[in-house]
Design a protein that fits this description.
It holds the Pfam family HTH_31. With about 500 residues, the protein is α+β, with helices and mostly antiparallel strands. The chain is about 40% helix and about 15% strand. Strands 1, 2, 3, 4, 5, 6 and 7 form a 7-stranded mixed beta sheet that branches. The protein has a 7-stranded mixed beta sheet with strand order 8-14-13-12-9-10-11, with helices on both faces.
Length: about 500
């Protein structure tokens, strides 16, 4: 942990404004989060923005900005990068976020002295807590994101060893606690960690030897599996907590379904978490688009606002999004196109684990014959989501970055249609992943996201063959792992198997 003297020295180098340094306003004993919040407030006021105005520009709520400024919560890495861009700080907040992070050891051991079994993988989206020795219970803490509130996953630790193509781990005949959602096996010899969902153990066939479980290599914990586990556990926790209220408010908000245009404010779902509000917005927009597409005369072009792994994970895990893609594929079998804007600054600020989620979301779309394009131009970051019927009309449907829960409209305004035509035309012409085949487009996307395409193909083939639900599965009826499995199998199918 940095002391205050170090922080003062580092950040005094980054000041670009003559305004008083926010550290002077802090009392002794305040936390690094207090300092970061004061720094954010300083730059926001220097740019003449309200919390609501700044929130709209970085696709989050005014309350989120307020909580960061008052140190009620930490600023996620991706959001810090967006704030830097919008406030033109020269990278102050991104560097501040890095300097003020707790320094966790590479091998995440308990707070006591390290043990030989402490081979649990470090990951920027997770913190391991508790006793990580064999035979004990531990917890994995999924860190919060921009809209995900994080989660706690409990696990039992077991010893593992390899025999042939599988890893065997010791396990009780019946898991010791209904709260132990994972059994984690530590394979010391290979410095490998595998995991399996205890619900699968309770329902599935037992191994030949009653005191051991056979786990495939597909369930090794690495950047791929930990990223998916982070997204699923975070979404699952929020949606389960809000389940009854979500059902009631979805029915109430269904009154807007027959309107040609609507914009619903956040106050109409004030009791819901940010994750649940986004689910409602996404669900409504998907149903709205499918209804409006009945009036289109040609294969449409789609524009979507997801930029980060957190946002992209909704395509992989929201059950309604999978069904939405199925419906579009059936309606446009020759293939539609879908464009994203992911600036290089967002790529640089996003952990590798989360960047993999972006690639998987693109692969899911390509698997449904939807051709993906990607613009790196930050100027397109604030373009709202739309569906373009070229030369005729546009369907506007925004749930990410909207002022409220959603904003939908259908228009044949010539200037609007022309504007969206220019956006998609420019993106298609300058796409950083422009190529003739899905394999080449996804490989180009992996290069742009700085991901190892060969390794990812191998791991996706493994995970797709067994299904992600074997590692963990959602409890919420609103989530599904079908999208994850399809995306993994598609990527795996694009590469020749390893010898």
């Amino acid at each position: 942990m940095l002391n205050w003297t170090t922080v003062t020295v580092h950040f005094s180098l980054y000041r670009r404004s003559p305004m008083p340094h926010p550290l002077k306003a802090l009392r002794p004993g305040r936390s690094p989060s207090d300092w970061f919040g004061a720094e954010l407030r300083h730059w926001r006021l220097a740019r003449g923005l309200t919390q609501a105005e700044l929130g709209r520009q970085v696709w989050t709520s005014a309350s989120m900005i307020a909580k960061i400024e008052t140190a009620e919560r930490d600023c996620p890495d991706g959001l810090a990068a967006q704030l830097d861009d919008v406030l033109n700080t020269g990278g102050v907040l991104r560097r501040a976020r890095e300097l003020l992070k707790p320094q966790h050891p590479a091998a995440l051991a308990p707070d006591t002295s390290p043990h030989p079994e402490s081979t649990l993988p470090a990951n920027p989206l997770w913190i391991w807590r508790g006793n990580v020795t064999v035979g004990h219970q531990t917890t994995l803490e999924a860190l919060p994101g921009t809209f995900m509130g994080g989660a706690i996953v409990e696990a039992g630790i077991s010893r593992a060893s390899r025999e042939g193509d599988h890893v065997w781990l010791s396990a009780p005949e019946t898991p010791t606690s209904h709260r132990s959602h994972l059994i984690i096996g530590l394979n010391e010899a290979e410095q490998q960690v595998v995991a399996v969902d205890t619900r699968k153990v309770r329902r599935g066939p037992r191994a030949l030897e009653s005191d051991r479980l056979r786990i495939p290599d597909a369930y090794v914990l690495d950047d791929l599996s930990l990223g998916l586990l982070w997204a699923l556990s975070s979404l699952d926790t929020a949606l389960l907590f809000d389940d009854a209220l979500l059902t009631a408010q979805r029915q109430e908000l269904g009154n807007f379904a027959d309107l040609r245009r609507s914009a619903v404010g956040r106050d109409m779902a004030a009791g819901l978490s940010e994750t649940s509000r986004l689910w409602i917005g996404s669900d409504f927009c998907a149903r709205y688009i499918l209804r409006q597409c009945e009036h289109l005369t040609s294969t449409p072009t789609f524009w979507t606002r997801e930029r980060t792994g957190e946002e992209a994970s909704t395509w992989l895990l929201f059950a309604h999004k999978y069904h939405y893609l199925q419906a579009l594929s059936a309606r446009y079998p020759s293939g539609a196109t879908r464009s994203f804007c992911v600036p290089e600054s967002v790529v640089r600020a996003t952990p590798r684990t989360a960047r993999i989620l972006v690639l998987l979301a693109a692969a899911l779309m390509e698997s449904f014959a939807i051709q993906v394009h990607l613009s790196p131009d930050p100027a397109y970051s604030t373009v709202e989501g739309f569906v373009l019927d070229p030369g005729r009309q546009a369907i506007i449907a925004t749930w990410l970055g909207a002022d409220g829960i959603w904003h939908v409209d259908a228009t044949d305004s010539i200037p609007t249609v022309r504007e969206y035509t220019d956006v998609t035309g420019d993106t298609h012409a300058s796409s950083v992943i422009g190529a003739a085949t899905p394999a080449l487009r996804l490989q180009a996307l992996a290069d742009y996201l700085d991901l190892d395409w060969t390794w990812l193909g191998h791991r996706c083939a493994q995970l797709g063959a067994y299904g992600f639900a074997g590692l963990t599965q959602p409890s919420s009826r609103l989530l599904s792992t079908e999208g994850v499995d399809r995306a993994c199998r598609f990527i795996g199918s694009l590469q020749a198997p390893r010898q």
